[in-house]
Structure formats: C-alpha cells, structure tokens
From TrEMBL:
Pfam families: PRISE. Gene3D superfamilies: NAD(P)-binding Rossmann-like Domain (3.40.50.720). Residues 68-356 form the PRISE-like Rossmann-fold domain. This is Nucleoside-diphosphate-sugar epimerase.
Length: 356
C-alpha cells in the first residue's frame, strides 16, 4: 500500500522531457518534495538537483547516500551504439539507482519505457508487424531490448524491497524540452522554421505507411499525470500501462495543420521517404543565421533537433498505435488533443526563444 502522506519524489532524468514535465506537475499540485538525479541542474524552481553520472554505480551511490525517497520515477536512458550496450548501460542505470536505495523505504518505483517494447530495438526497429492496437499483455519480442532489462531490474528490486512498481509505455513524446533526443515537437518546429527561412517545401519526411496509417502520440503532460496517478493509486500498483493521448490520427491530416501554425504550406506527399537527417545534413549554418536574426538562445542545431529519432518514428513501415483500455479500466480518464500537444509545445519553444 502506498502511503500518500509521505511524498518525496526522486526523478531520475529530471531535466529530460518526461522528467521535467513530471517535476512541474508535482510541484504545481503541491504536497511533494521533488529531487532530481541527473548530470545537469534542473532549471525548474523547487527541484533540488543531485548531480551524478548515472552510468557509474559509485557516483550514484554517493549522490543518493542521504536520500530516502518514497517514490522513484526513472525517466532516463543513454543511447549506445548497439542494443547489447544499450542493455548493459541502461539496465545498469536502473540497477545503480535502486541498489543505492536499498533498505531506504522506497514505496513505489515507476519506469518509463515506450512502444519499442512492441516494435523492437533500434537495430531491428519495426521489422515485425505486431497486431494493433498494442496491448500490454502482448508477449515480449525475441530480440534483445533494453526496456526488458530495465523492467527486470525494477521487478527484482521491488520483490527484494517489498515496494510496488509501475511501467509506463508512451509512444512518441510531444512537449517542451531542449536537448532531448526524443522530442519530435522541437525537431518539427526547427524543420518548419528552416523551410520558412529557405523557402523550401514542408515535406513529410517519412514513409507512405506512416503518412496514411492510423497512429497516436503521447503528450509529456499526459505522461506526467499518468506517472503520478499510478504511483498514488493502489489498484494500479504492479502493472504495465500504455500511455498515449487517447486520440488516433493520420499524419496526412495533421501535417497541413502543423504547417498552418508556422504560416507555411504543406507540400504534397512525394511518394517516398525524404529523411530529415539527409535533407538537413548541411542546415547548421542556416539555423545559426536564424538564431542570429531572431535573437534566439544560442543553441546549435544538434541540440534543438534530433532528426535521426524523428526519421525513425516517421519512417516506419508498420502501423503503430496503442490501446488505453487497461488504464481506463483502472480509472485513468485523461485525454489530450494531439494538435494542441504540438502547438502548445511550439508556443513554449517560442516563449523560451528556442524557435522564432
């Protein structure tokens, strides 16, 4: 049973898109002490940051030596060259944190993974076509997958410590964040501004299947609400959940609406993928000029856009969307309009002087 009167959240990866949105939510609602564990200092007022190297057990143990959180939210990962290394490093991050907190009375551990649980790791990404919508009871794929390794670490720690756990599987994350590899909103915002600056066409860069198929995304604010809900709802303990906006859409519907936000025209779909990583390989100087012209924060293109990750999401050749029935049955009813997910993120990026 989770003691909701003792609420000290340790957010592992508090400066990322998931962790920062969770920190903002907990602090806004009140009643939570929020500690962040990350390499960099959280800019969010009210978050006490403990800096460490998450991949180094001794560094993590030192940072957490005096901590007794009631709730641990693990939202961090570190991309590696191979899935074997992803398993070693990212499984190690979870193990380092939970080993450092042995015997400290942690009540609940929440882990954020994603739809690669169903689609496979980057090396074999979307090479199979699991039945849609994805449902939590679907069996693990036979591939190596660092999400599975991370899950096994929290299962083992929870059994050892007598704590509860939850696993949260968002789809593509949409929200405000800078320097985050998984933020499609920032990537598409930067792409749109480069198109506007150069007079280029705003072309959907992905596959015909993604252009036409039903899909969904996850607003980082919905994910934050879901994390808090599962951590404080006894009936939701010890379950894995999909978490998406609750709206199914097609990119051919959404794309011209994103273009309209930026005052540009969406191009006709070219009939084949035109990946951003290739199209914008030499766009660094253009972005630097946009930054100079509009007085933006001095971020290099590689910090504000992750073309490779957006290309991976939009280049899939299999249909991808998630069932939310399990969360609904347990009482989570929040919904988020998807167009607003993007435009709210764009608004915040503009307000922070990240995009013009």
């Amino acid at each position: 049973m989770v003691d909701i009167m003792n609420k000290h959240a340790l957010i592992v990866g508090a400066t990322g898109i998931a962790g920062s949105n969770l920190a903002e939510l907990l602090l806004a609602e009140g009643g939570w002490d929020v500690t962040g564990l990350s390499r960099s200092i959280s800019p969010i007022a009210g978050v006490r940051t403990l800096s460490c190297d998450l991949t180094d057990a001794a560094s993590v143990a030192t940072a957490l030596s005096q901590e007794k959180p009631s709730h641990v939210f693990i939202t961090a990962w570190a991309r590696q060259a191979t899935e074997a290394e992803n398993c070693r490093v990212n499984g190690g991050i979870v193990r380092n944190v939970l080993d450092a907190l042995k015997g400290r009375g942690v009540q609940h551990v929440a882990l954020v993974t994603g739809t690669k649980h169903y689609l496979g790791p980057f090396e074999a990404y979307a090479k199979t076509a699991p039945e849609t919508p994805f449902r939590e009871e679907q069996a693990r794929l036979p591939n190596e997958n660092f999400y599975y390794v991370q899950e096994d670490e929290i299962f083992a720690a929870s059994e050892r410590e007598g704590s509860t756990w939850s696993v949260h599987r968002p789809h593509t994350l949409i929200g405000f964040a800078v320097g985050n590899a998984m933020n499609m909103a920032a990537t598409l915002g930067v792409y749109a501004e480069i198109c506007k600056e150069t007079g280029s066409k705003f072309v959907f860069p992905g596959s015909l299947q993604q252009w036409e198929a039903a899909t969904d995304v996850t607003d980082a604010r919905i994910l934050a609400k879901h994390l808090k809900w599962a951590a404080t709802t006894p009936a939701a303990a010890n379950h894995a959940f999909n978490v998406v906006n609750g709206e199914i859409f097609r990119w051919k519907w959404l794309w011209p609406r994103l273009a309209a936000y930026f005052g540009i025209e969406a191009a006709e779909y070219p009939g084949k993928p035109e990946p951003l990583e290739t199209r914008l390989a030499d766009a660094g100087p253009v972005w630097d000029e946009i930054v100079r012209k509009h007085g933006l924060e001095n971020n290099p293109l590689s910090r504000v856009a992750s073309f490779w990750h957006t290309d991976a999401d939009l280049g899939r050749e299999v249909e991808t969307f998630n069932d939310m029935g399990k969360s609904r049955k347990f009482g989570f009813m929040d919904y988020q309009d998807t167009l607003t997910s993007f435009t709210d993120a764009f608004d915040r990026l503009r307000a922070a002087r990240i995009i013009p």
